[in-house]
Amino acid sequence: MSETLIDTETKPDKVEKADELSGRGRPAAGQDPVKRDQIMEGARRVFMDKGFDAASMNDVTREAGVSKGTIYVYFDNKEELFEALVEEERCKIFQNLYEVLDREDNLRDVLEDFGMALSYKITSDKVVMAQRTVIGVAERIPELGLRFYEKGPKQGHAKVEAFLNRAIAKGLLEIADVDLAAYQLSELCMAGLLRQRLYGYRRQSPADHEIRYVVRAGVDVFLKAYGTEAFAAQDKARRTD
Fold first, then answer.
1. Distances in Å between the alpha carbon of 110 and those of 156, 161, 171?
2. Which CATH number belongs to the domain containing residue 191 in this structure?
3. Burial status of residue 104 (CB atoms within 10 A of its CB: 0-12, 13-18, 19 or more)
4. What domain count does the chain have?
């Protein structure tokens, strides 16, 4: 029977669904966060092991330890389940990533701390896997890739732009194209690391000292290109403290 249909094996879940709606103190059908997390964790393992194309809803039910009836109460199909999983991963990836840009510390210190946080997060095993998966299905489910980018990297890029504009207003940076400079900053802080991870050339996440080396060099290039005399004075005072 097609996976998009619920067969007679789901009858116990239909009874459970009715019970849940009958006011016996249990969450309404499809609203139990514990059950949803159970399904999501099972799906995460299946998609990571088999990839989107080879994975099936049957695989997820077995891995999550739930019935087909239960899984279809929460998700209509594999695409919807996958999209929910990607959205959850996106939130985890970008949560708190840009908070360092709200600090009022020395400009170089803030940029280096941001670069470390960005590179460490983006080159981690879980995030690399998420990026590969989204890229792999972007042609088949273009709106998924679009949402992932708009709600993640694009919003983060806007925060970097806002930070650079504040630094410009303080007289610390002089930048003609802030949009381009924001991209340059992110790329400089990950120079080669992300691409090596995505293609599997680098099998493990970079060590802290590797990331620190790349980030410091990248920030130094960025500040030499855009830093003003006011920044140079601030940076000199930083070194003498």
1. 16, 14, 16
2. 1.10.357.10
3. exposed
4. 2
Does residue 178 form part of some domain? yes
Tokens of 202: 């680098």
Closest to 188 in 3D by CA, of 225, 156, 214, 212: 214
Specify whether 223 is located in the same domain as 110. Answer: yes
Q: How confident is the model at residue 19 (pLDDT cuts 50, 70, 90)?
A: very low
Residue 14: is its pLDDT beyond 50? no
The answer as to whether 207 is a domain residue is: yes
Q: How does DSSP assign 14-27, residue by residue? A: HHHHHHHHTTSSSP
Q: pTM of the full predicted structure?
A: 0.76
Instruction: Determine, yes or no, domain membership for 231.
Output: yes
User: What is the C-alpha to C-alpha distance for residues 113 and 116, in angstroms, rounded to an integer?
Assistant: 5
Range of the domain at 24: 8-75
Q: Are both 55 and 92 inside the same structural domain?
A: no
Q: How far apart are CA 182 and CA 109, in angstroms?
A: 17
CATH number of the domain at 56, please: 1.10.10.60
19 and 58 share one domain: yes
The band of 47, judged by pLDDT with boundaries at 50, 70 and 90, is confident
Give the C-alpha separation, 36 to 71, whole Å.
8
Question: Tokens 């879940």 label which residue?
Answer: 13
172 burial level (CB within 10 Å; 0-12, 13-18, 19+): buried
Q: How many other C-beta atoms can be found within 10 angstroms of the C-beta atom of residue 7?
A: 10
